[in-house]
Structures
1.
Amino acid sequence: MNNIDSVGHATGKSVYLDDIPVLKNTLYGVVYDSPLPHATVTNLDVTAAQSLPGVERVFTWRDIPGINDIGGIIPDEPLFASDEVHYIGQPVALVVAADEHTARRALGLIKIETVELEVITDPREAQEKGLLLIPSRTFRMGDVSAAWSECAYIFEGTASTGGQEHLYLETQGAYASPSENGSVKIHSSTQGPTLVQKVAARVLGIPMNRVEVEVTRLGGAFGGKEDQATATAVMAALASHILNRPVKISLHRLDDIRMTGKRHPYSSDFRIGLTEEYKIKAYSAVMFQNGGAAADLSPAIMERTLFHSTNAYFIPNTEVTVHSCKTNLPPNTAFRGFGAPQGMFVIEAAIAKAAAELEVPAYLIQQANFLSEGDEFQYGQVAESVNIGRCFDDLDKKFGIEKIEKEISEFNKRDPFRRKGMAMMPVCFGLSFTNTSMNQARALVHIYQDGSIGISTGAVEMGQGVNTKLAQVAAMIFSVNINRIKLESTNTTRVANTSPTAASSGTDLNGHALHNACTVLLKRLKSTAATIHECSIEEIEILNEKVVINGLATETDWEKLVQNAFLKRVSLTENGHYFTPEIYFDKSKEKGHPFAYHVYGTAAVTVTLDCLRGTYRVDDVLIVHDFGNSLNTAIDLGQVEGGVMQGIGWMTMEEVVFNDGGKLLSNTLSTYKVPDIYSAPGRVVCYALETAGPDLAILRSKAVGEPPFMYGIGAFFALCNAIKSFKPELKTDFDAPLTPEKVLMSLYNH
Ligand code: MTE
Ligand code: LUZ
Ligand code: MOS
């Protein structure tokens, strides 16, 4: 089954926000953002900008009719700064003009007077000064302080990971226009239309039913539009609502990179204790999450870090704390993996450290500690259908870990200046929003009189193929040709109170809701068929667009059946609702059953390092991944390849750099290096683990969006191993990304 969008994308016919034809009288908005990282605003003068010919109006916090707050979880983030600014790039005003060029010229006429305040960019320093976004949280299991004395070996260290720019191809943007009765319609490039609707209503001071949010598709999001599409959308809505004119905002790339938050950098201290047999007896870690200047999604990301801090291992005694630290940087936000990669990096660093000290391959320690059936996670959930050991063993069977190791060691003996390295990266990722109430969805299905089908859900298509998978679900239930099905835009008036398309759960949640709606409609149609053919409903099947009775095809095809049902006044519309059963979480105890199921997989990553130049390439990424019973192997493999590439980029070359004054130095694509075709691995080979798939996954097809990202972590440890083989005495520190510059310095600077 091809992706239903492939032709539209290849021919340029798919409609993104910027392709929507603009209405007459449309105005264009450009954001004026804070030039300072932390300051009191003593005066803001927009009069000169206001009087530039062509400028319609300059909006500041004073123009907000409702509440000046866009915080998604915690109300700590103004739409426009008022008396203080907290980061460079923070929106202060919006210039709206007849054209974008004029609006941009007016920016230079805005005068801001400030008194500078202390700037903090380091999360550890923020924590010391008590600057936290939310209270710190700790997950515990067993008795870690008692367990240290039972360990044969104890190792300590630090590990840190950097930020990451989402670099969605389509930048943030929105197009708002006034409708009747004081309503506003917002076209938004958002993963969370309901969040945009809710926050727009709050800021405009109108009820949610006066705000309609429409999403056609996104040119990529990767978490960057889960929360941070809201500011742009609400600014456009505000200007449109007040001026009673259509207003469009589409961020320029450099503005987008400067103003929006990124993946959270983390800096952590760890301690790991093992027995003589390499069983991890105890693990403790303290992690400092760099949250930026407002909470955004940091509380939820912190939580997912905690949930994934022991990755795919059973560790009987743990204590992991995360501090969410407030700094003068743009608020960091969701990014594929949502804090899990940061947490997993620390336990993998701890294992790598132990392996180096004990002079054994890390995979022996990994393997000795894999979760087994019935083990308890740190958060109380009991592990079921655990596949991690099988993924690892299958990978070994298919590719031969020892054989790879042998080839590498021979190469390393032979080659004068190049070194190869290998690392295994197991992954265990929990599926469900960690906030239980978000695990619900709705789907609205219309069967039209001609037999064609229109489907609306809360899912947002951002390139991940959710629309194709949803079409497949409906086509399978109705047993009709997929060409009969159209996936409608995502719209808050058709499907309300949606969760963002995130947490890899888009297909699962919306697919289940769709399944429920289609099942009800199918039953109605079967009942109609039973009336036509004067038999009982149990004898009826619809197979390949035909009514089949007791295995025999009848004259009645899908179109006839639908037409007949319509004439008989049967409802051909249904709204399906779904909520994930069985899940709950008790925050007061930090225990529960938060996930519907877990996704497992293992990758072996090999690299070749040029020790003269510090340059390297990733040779192979060999994977066995648990897709369950995949709905669409082409899409799923695409998600694996994209995720792996993005993970490798985060670990090796993408370096978000701020100076001490909170200014982003890596603010262009010439100073921020993203992976391109030349940095792609030589091979990405991914085998599907043979499994039935869990009941709670839609048609037993497991969610796939985020988990493969974490295979990229293997590239970091493979590089560490290559470095170690060139310079055995080197004590590697775990400071990602491991850029070629950093590699070169570590090879020769000690
Ligand atoms: N794939 C593409 N092509 N573009 C994206 O923006 N986002 C990722 C992943 N894969 C993304 C993507 C992220 S962060 C998530 S959470 C999931 O897709 C969301 O979609 P799903 O829930 O339908 O898997
Ligand atoms: N968003 C969210 C997420 O609000 N809660 C989550 O658990 C989550 N997980 C991954 C990505 N986005
Ligand atoms: Mo993905 S980080 O859940 O949008």
2.
Amino acid sequence: MNRPPKVAVLGSTGSIGRSALEVLQSQSDGFELTCMSCHQQIELFEKQCLEHRPALAIVTDEFNPLTRQWLAAPDSKSMRRAAGSEALIQSISGPDVDIVIAAIVGVAGLESSLAAVQNGKRLALANKESLVVAGQLLLSSAKESRAEIIPVDSEHCAIFQALQCDRPGAIESNRWEDQGTSSRANPGQSAQRIILTASGGPLRDWPLEDLEKATIQDALAHPTWSMGRKITVDSATMMNKALEVIEAHWLFGLEAERIQVVIHPQSIIHSMVEFNDGSVIAQLSPPDMRLPIQYALTYPKRTMGPAKRMDWNLSQTLSWYPVDPERYPALALGFEVVQRGGTCGAVLNAANEAAVELFLSGHIRLTDIAKICRSVLQHHNFAPTPNLNELLEQDRWARHEVMRWNRSLC
Ligand code: NAD
Ligand code: MG
């Protein structure tokens, strides 16, 4: 390709979306921003559009009266306005997008992730929920169209980088090997296991008996990362790591026994790969999502960028310790989903999204989230090889069950 790749940033008003725009600005010779989307926060979006000048700006929440007002503003010469998710899918699928930065939160990001891989684009994937819900579908579509899925999640980016140590010469020519039915970064025979690090979240050191009293503010006070509200609550319950276990299973083709989670409070080691000779390769950097976003854009190259650097003149202690399952009951659900497969990912994800919303609106306790998710997962009508419609049907069912659970409490 002798022109700069064209990039779409989906969810540009969010935490990852805003970081992605900073990265693109710092790499403006290397990439062309052609499309941006948001759902709400139109005022911020308009400011972003004025600053970054994409050829196409899309607000996906088409029924919002504010969206209609925004749409009515005249198109400038350099920027067209559109509304609705159909416009987004059309843009991603067309020739004006080569790389999709998927930074929408929740299952709402699935359709656009699927469109990106079905059309052979590079999917820079922050939206882990896409893989959790429909990992098999995404991978088989990527294989068919020769699309690339490059992880943006910091842990998976770390593993993706560490795995390359074992594959000299193979990185450029054969990075998404055909393996059975799916297209994925091959961990090879010599990678024994991966070790995902978790910060432990803001309640890591609370007495166990106090956890049920945690307020919304307590759960949102993350010690090392600044992120959107949903993922921050997921970090407090460690559901985020459960989702990441499932994400790693799909991205790297690893079974549950080869995935381990440790608490690493400093969030400097982003994850590790242990090889068969006992070597452990880790990726380290200050907690800053601009680095994995940039790597997903520039891979297999590395370039200078805005991400924070380690200060080697400062003393720093790195520590890790095992996860206490009593403190973080949500984590086991991720391993269960990897083992059972089928519809389990869609059900766990939907139950969690609905339960997090209930927590954030003051209806349930933080500690109820894992309990609700376990119960909904246990009672669902399992199917081993669901298609997209069946997955979405299970998603709806699970959300409905969570609401029923909540009503039964009132
Ligand atoms: P956020 O809440 O800050 O932003 C979400 C974005 O999605 C916003 O732009 C919003 O307009 C858009 N959006 C919300 N609902 C939508 C809908 N129904 N349709 C279309 N767009 C919609 O979230 P975030 O923290 O940036 O996280 C985004 C994704 O990245 C999540 O899947 C999260 O798990 C993942 N991720 C985030 C981080 C982080 O540091 N924030 C790290 C790793 C992975
Ligand atoms: Mg992560």
